[in-house]
């Protein structure tokens, strides 16, 4: 008889396209994942994966089993939840304020679709949380971190600003320029250090605590700013320059920070996040 544990391990391998990745998500050893897959293959008399250089390639049998297993696991959790007080799974998530509202919202919708009994709440800075959706540089010490997406930093420039049409941009071009400082950005100190090393001194005209205000002031012509691309909302009056030499290779990694081991609701949330990565990117997570 197929075990739920083996099916969970199989689903993780299917989503990660790797036994090593599945072991990381499930917090078990790689042999445990391989053993579970081998047991299922023996019981069903099918081959589930082809091993390739880039990872595991699911067979048609694996594609079919994944759909059935996901439904079975969801139904099993729904049965368990129905016997809990209220039938819900409480989950407190802390969210970094500088994240894209659109992208964060898409992830939260995925969680609610995949885990219908999830009672999601957003925790403030002082309240305890089950996990944090944050940047890797902001993750608490001692936590595990699973990357969900990456963000490139860009320069936002007022439409009529000379830098909006300059052919090649460098951080040195910010010297003496009116600047909107995003105080909530965890990279603020890094930018300040980088500008200092290059003796670049922009003229800070405003210090703001939200993306909405930063981009609104750029649109109003108050100054330029540096922001993560995925947090940028298209609006009139703002030109996005993603060709600044020093910013082109700068990335911030956004993901879930949590205390291991992941079990219960947290494990379900992590699995749903991984499926969201696959569906959003059209490829398996890196």
From TrEMBL:
UniProt superkingdom: Bacteria
DNA-binding found in the keyword field: yes
Matching PROSITE patterns: HTH_LYSR (PS50931)
Keyword DNA-binding belongs to the record: yes
Protein keywords: Activator, DNA-binding, Transcription, Transcription regulation
Segments forming domain HTH lysR-type: 2-59
InterPro entries listed in its UniProt record: LysR_HTH_N (IPR000847), LysR_subst-bd (IPR005119), WH-like_DNA-bd_sf (IPR036388), WH_DNA-bd_sf (IPR036390)
Pfam families the UniProt entry points to: HTH_1, LysR_substrate
Gene3D superfamilies for the chain: Periplasmic binding protein-like II, Winged helix-like DNA-binding domain superfamily/Winged helix DNA-binding domain
Family listed: Belongs to the LysR transcriptional regulatory family.
Protein name: LysR family transcriptional regulator
Species of provenance: Piscinibacter gummiphilus
């Amino acid at each position: 008889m197929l075990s739920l544990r083996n099916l969970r391990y199989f689903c993780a391998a299917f989503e990660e396209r790797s036994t090593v990745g599945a072991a990381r998500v499930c917090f078990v050893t790689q042999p445990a994942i391989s053993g579970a897959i081998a047991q299922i293959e023996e019981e069903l008399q099918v081959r589930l994966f082809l091993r390739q250089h880039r990872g595991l390639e699911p067979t048609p049998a694996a594609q079919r089993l994944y759909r059935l297993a996901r439904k079975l696991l969801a139904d099993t959790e729904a049965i368990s939840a129905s016997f809990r007080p209220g039938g819900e799974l409480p989950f407190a998530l802390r969210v970094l304020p500088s994240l894209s509202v659109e992208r964060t919202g898409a992830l939260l919708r995925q969680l609610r679709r995949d885990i219908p009994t999830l009672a999601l709440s957003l925790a403030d800075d002082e309240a305890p949380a089950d996990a944090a959706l944050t940047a890797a540089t902001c993750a608490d010490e001692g936590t595990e971190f699973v990357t969900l997406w990456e963000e490139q930093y860009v320069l936002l420039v007022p439409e009529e600003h000379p830098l909006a049409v300059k052919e090649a941009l460098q951080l040195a071009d910010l010297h003496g320029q009116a600047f909107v400082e995003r105080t909530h950005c965890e990279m603020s100190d890094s930018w300040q250090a980088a500008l200092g090393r290059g003796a670049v001194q922009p003229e800070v005209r405003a210090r703001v605590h939200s993306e909405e205000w930063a981009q609104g002031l750029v649109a109003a012509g108050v100054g330029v700013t540096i922001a993560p691309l995925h947090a940028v909302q298209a609006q009139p009056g703002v030109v996005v320059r993603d060709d600044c030499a020093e910013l082109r290779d700068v990335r911030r990694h956004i993901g879930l920070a949590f205390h291991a081991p992941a079990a219960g609701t947290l494990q379900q949330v992590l699995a749903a996040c991984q499926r969201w990565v696959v569906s959003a990117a059209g490829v398996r997570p890196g």
